[in-house]
Amino acid sequence: MEGLIVENKANLYKVKADEKEYTATARGKFKNDSFTPVVGDIATFSILDKDKKTAVIEKIKERRTYIKRPKLANITQIIFVVSSKHPKPDLLLLDKQLAFAEYLRIKPIIVLNKIDLDDKQEFINISQIYENIGYKVIQTDAKVGIGVEELLLELKNNVSAFSGNSGVGKSTLINDLFKTNITEEGEISLKNKRGKNTTTDIKLYELDSDTYIADTPGFSTFDVYEISYRELDKYFIEFINAIDRCRYIGCSHIKEEECGIKSQLNKGKISKTRYENYVKIYNELKEKEEHKW
């Protein structure tokens, strides 16, 4: 049979097929191949006991996409949840995540949550920055369900991973989507305004037919270092058309003169915030790459 791996816990897999869930182990050959099944994989499996719904995974279908940490396969889009307030929006992290999504060729959607707490309505400016370069931005207030219907439409017929720092309202948003408390809600410490991570296991939840979402602990700290600093500019989508206007091949767009990116920046066609974050990420990647040995 063929099914979708919806959960992995202590080397036991939950595989969904024909509206049934089987508890499965993986054949020993996976260990020999240094390749193990992960959540999101399409698996061919054999049933060991129909009544107990136990099975063994025989083969994994070729993956369309793969994320190393947390281990997820065949995700079609990533929902980046950013808090408008408490904690304050971390746009450097968001730009890292967007670059990584472009690198993985997975569609990103930005959710600006807790808009009710943003008295100065700074979320409007943030929305404009990212909408102007072509990203879908949804403004939400998870506590009362604002924006949830719009998000539901985007999730339809997709396998979506939710990402974001602890405390941004990710779990509340997922509970809103399901209209039930399926994840343990995070807690914001009023003392230091930092979130306490409460989600521990990766699991795909079925929202509708062919529609799954994953709450992914630790995704805010994924390994962006897979991207070479020399290629980072390719993953800032508003840079792409201006790269050819640089005088020097391999231009870093930082110190060089006659740079197409800086020219667009000076004309106001590239966001200053995005450019500054590009420089920070570039230097971070460069330092990591140069000192990896």
What are the SSEs and their pairings?
Elements: E1 2-9, E2 12-17, E3 20-26, H1 29-32, E4 42-49, E5 54-60, E6 66-67, E7 72-73, E8 77-83, H2 91-104, E9 107-113, H3 122-132, E10 136-139, H4 148-155, E11 159-163, H5 170-178, E12 187-188, E13 195-196, E14 203-208, E15 211-215, H6 240-243, H7 260-266, H8 272-290
Parallel strand pairs: 3-5, 8-9, 8-11, 9-10, 11-15
Antiparallel strand pairs: 1-2, 1-4, 2-3, 4-5, 6-7, 12-13, 14-15
- Mean of the pLDDT scores? 87
Helical content band: 25-40%
**Span from first to last CA?**
46 Å
Structural category is alpha/beta
Give a quick account of the main beta sheet: strands, pairing sense, barrel closure: 6 strands, mixed
What is the quaternary state of this protein?
single chain
Strand content: 25-35%
SSE string? EEEHEEEEEHEHEHEHEEEEHHH
The tally of strands reads 15
Taken from the alpha-carbon principal axes, the silhouette is globular
Poorly predicted runs: 185-200
CA gyration radius, whole angstroms: 21 Å
Please list the strands of the largest sheet in the order they lie side by side: 10-9-8-11-15-14
Number of H- or I-type helical stretches: 8
Task: Describe what this molecule looks like in 3D.
- The chain is of the alpha/beta class.
- Helix content is 26%, strand content 27%.
- The chain has eight helices and 15 strands.
- The strands form four sheets. The chain has a six-stranded mixed sheet with strand order 10-9-8-11-15-14, sandwiched between helices. A five-stranded mixed beta barrel has the order 1-2-3-5-4. A two-stranded antiparallel sheet has the order 6-7.
